[in-house]
Design brief:
Number of helices: 1
Radius of gyration: 27 Å
Helix content: 25-40%
Largest sheet: 4 strands, antiparallel
Order of helices and strands: HEEEEEEEE
Distance between the termini: 76 Å
Number of strands: 8
Length: about 150
Amino acid sequence: DAFMRCSGTERGFTLIELAVVLTVLGLILTFAIPAFKTFNQGLQLQGSTQNLVGQINLARQKAISTGQPQTIHFYYGTYGWHYHIHNGSTPGPGWNLPDGVVYSWDSGTLPGRYITIGTDGRANQSGWIIVRDRRGDRDTISVQRSGLVLVN
């Protein structure tokens, strides 16, 4: 029977070859997982910054279109949110930042931790919102009295 004969040219992998391949894959994963986590944290910081800018711009558009000023409060945990719209007695809507992303208040940041956008689209004050991640990377959102919002 031709299938049962050993010709000395058997095909397959030896145990050593398999061990080497698995070791190389293990090393690649050892370096790839922390790099992926770092990449993910950077994306969360960028996304959080863009969401904050978007919400401020949306509040500006709503203030202009409805003729009612819009106030955004930046207080962790208030009403279960990290920042929220508060116009009158009922707060909402509100939003949370991802785990590991925070905003902070340093010199030059918004006094009082709120922004009120008037019906003319102008902000009541100018200042910064500094968004940081666990690694210490940061984005700075600059709110101008004109209502312009920039990311530095």
